[in-house]
Amino acid sequence: MNHFLDIDKTDPAALRSIIDQAAAMKSARAGRPKGTPDDDQPLAGRMVALIFEKPSTRTRVSFDVGVRQMGGQTLVLSGGEMQLGHGETIADTARVMSRYVDLIMIRTFEEDTLLEMAEHATVPVINGLTNRTHPCQIMADVMTFEEHRGPIAGRKVTWCGDGNNVFASFAHAAGQFGFDLTFSGPETLDPERGFIDAARAKGVTVDIDRNPERAVTGADLVVTDTWISMHDSQTAKERRHNQLRPYQVNAELMKHAKPDALFMHCLPAHRGEEATNEVMDGPNSVVFDEAENRLHAQKAIMRYCLGV
Ligand code: CP
Ligand code: NVA
What we know:
12 helices, 9 strands, alpha/beta, 5-stranded parallel sheet, 4-stranded parallel sheet, globular
């Protein structure tokens, strides 16, 4: 049984085979209607619980559709409606859910909730986003980069904006897939130092550059995300916007990256804030491929977790 809790907690060979399997499964069903089952039905007879303590469009729909394409069934549960939100411990919830379902995906606030769920569940647990990381997203992003540009190893990725949960999983991926990473954002919104140190310890270059134009110079991929994450307080909105405005990804900034540099955003985007329409809808934007690849990457992650 394998949990999928974070990219740095998953063996690099397993990560590589997840990406390769995702690409193979994607091409095997190219052009088919979305509701058509895959030729292989590795999740036949399996029940998957999808637990959301925060809103979601992509994660919710892509997991649900992915399970069904592979022959399994889903239960989509909102944390607030479960006893989990009303005093039952996470450990007991994990033990109970394990008697009913074969796999649990959870999107939650504190990382400790995810870890406690994984510790006490007797079925695999997948991280569908916490305040700290978002590994399924970055597996889809690595798949998307490689689909368009070939191996990501040795490439330069520049992150502009908030040093948040999505950046953290990019830092994990840098270490595991072997690409260089530059963070460009205000010092007050720096990522946790540990993410950077851990990636560096794996031999990749991780830089912090407060000058966004210099930071994107030579980049093969420019990435940003919302300036206010779901766990951030709205009261700090104006201050965060003021601090992050210089890091907006616009056409002028993209001119400093390589001419064929891709642009990514995990979505949902706040158009005109962290990225302009010109970039979001521009020729180098692959934001909707990323969204699609959540489906394929997560199907391969579920197969890895269940060993099927
Ligand atoms: N990118 C992402 O996880 O989107 P949702 O919040 O819609 O699931
Ligand atoms: N950083 C964002 C990602 C949303 C998919 C958040 O946590 O709200």
